[in-house]
Design a protein that fits this description.
Structural class: mainly alpha
Order of helices and strands: HHHHHH
Largest sheet: none
Number of strands: 0
Shape: elongated
Radius of gyration: 16 Å
């Protein structure tokens, strides 16, 4: 089955792959680790906020998509955001503390993306009509873009997101 380029499942999966690439760059001493972290922070916050604003509420309306899985996704966003904040607050990139906090972030994010792909996204692919997935994709993309324009990965903003979760 071919997915529409605006399909919310495809857009979310594309973001997950981009996050994985940025996490690899953050682990590599040959890369601009601080730059990768800035890009990652913005993407993680924008992605999570857009999912919670536009996608998760819509998925709750489908009987075959478990509300508990949606709520679990929200909880895992909070865990990932707290791990991100802890890393952003480390002063020296590449220090032992930075590497330790990075590994906690990697664990939280990879756990969430794996679980979300196996549960919510498979459920959306199987139970949400393609036209509705395209509508959700447009709403997700718009919300994510607005968060990115607002420089949502700044440590001050991440602190607010964590405090409000």
């Amino acid at each position: 089955m071919t997915q529409h380029p605006q399909d919310v499942v495809k857009l979310i999966l594309d973001d997950h792959r981009r996050m994985e690439e940025l996490l690899r760059r953050m682990r590599s001493v040959a890369e601009d680790r601080a730059g990768a972290l800035r890009l990652f922070a913005a993407l993680l916050i924008a992605h999570g906020e857009a999912e919670e604003d536009e996608v998760y509420p819509a998925l709750r309306t489908y009987r075959r998509i478990d509300d508990a899985e949606v709520e679990h996704g929200v909880q895992e966003h909070s865990e990932g955001n707290r791990a991100l904040l802890a890393l952003l607050e480390v002063e020296e990139v590449g220090s032992g503390d930075w590497d330790e906090k990075l590994e906690r972030l990697v664990a939280a994010v990879t756990h969430h993306t794996d679980e979300e792909e196996r549960t919510l996204l498979n459920g959306a692919r199987e139970n949400v009509p393609a036209s509705r997935r395209a509508e959700l994709g447009a709403a997700f993309r718009h919300a994510r873009t607005e968060h990115l324009k607002a420089d949502c990965g700044r440590v001050e903003n991440v602190r607010k997101v964590v405090q409000n979760s």
